[in-house]
Amino acid sequence: MKSEKWMVEHIQDLKGKVIIVTGANSGLGFEAAKVFAKKDATVILACRSITRAETAKEKIMKVYPKSQLMIIPLDLESFESIKVFVNIFQQKFTRLDVLLNNAGIMTVPYGKTEDGLERQNGINHYGHFALTAQLFPLLKKTAGSRIVNVSSVAHRMGKMNFVDPLFEKQRYSKFKSYGRSKLSNLLFTYELDRRIREKGLDIKVLAAHPGVADTSLMRYMNINGILKPLYRLFAKFINTAYTGALPEIRASVDPDVQSGTYYGPKGLPFTKKKPVVVKSNKASHRVDYALKLWELSEKITNQKFEF
Ligand SMILES: NC(=O)c1ccc[n+]([C@@H]2O[C@H](COP(=O)([O-])OP(=O)(O)OC[C@H]3O[C@@H](n4cnc5c(N)ncnc54)[C@H](OP(=O)(O)O)[C@@H]3O)[C@@H](O)[C@H]2O)c1
Fold it and tell me: What CATH number should be reported for the domain whose range is 3-298?
């Protein structure tokens, strides 16, 4: 399907496909999981809260009672939890068609993951790097498989710092940290694409962003008092969780997308526009940054991709 003509209605039957969605209980991840379930895929809801995942599952089952949904607990701020998730997944499935790395946190106060990493970079980038590396053997075994990383327009405010990648020495800024984590999502995507092409593997890797979408991610912005009704007004004009999820849905299942591309809403990020290939900034295409980040990610996560 060419460029702007693509619509959810065009998605082919996904029966037999196995799709993991991280952060599937809420926002974009929930909407993506719902669409994949509607199209008959087997969808793994990879969520840190079983209660919230059960609620999400019930909501999807109510609309699509024949959905093939499975909850497997995953907390991206714990390398142990990621390992356990992968073990459970591998015991149950022998294929993985799509890994949608969607989960994320935004602009939180400084904090550390279980393994001592600054949380935004720990969850948004390093957790997904570790997860992808461990699932890579299965992705390699599955013909035409795909990895999709969810980034943001906020990658533009990210700056890489390989001396102090996790804000241990410099003053922590919640915006700069979020920006760095989302820039890392893109550097990781483009580098993984280069390595996959070099080895001639049958795996596509893409990135996507929703523009600005009204999801519970906004809870991190602490919009209170007079700003609350103003935000509700603003929210009428921005993407819903569903329209915001369209770029990552398209990147995950449109057979015509190209590996190494970045999908987002056409035009301004606030507008509810069709998902198309969009540009990311120059820093995201810097190979020297990508190589350094790769090396650092391997060291921090203690994981290597088996190409
Ligand atoms: N909304 C936007 O405008 C916007 C813009 C640009 C990019 N994005 C990106 O879109 C993605 C999805 O965000 P959203 O807007 O849908 O927000 P959301 O509604 O808050 O959903 C985020 C999901 O990530 C999960 N998550 C957070 N920390 C986790 C962890 N440690 N382990 C496993 N799962 C974890 C959350 O689980 P809990 O429910 O348990 O917290 C939730 O399911 C994120 O990567 C975000 O950076 C969003």
Answer: 3.40.50.720
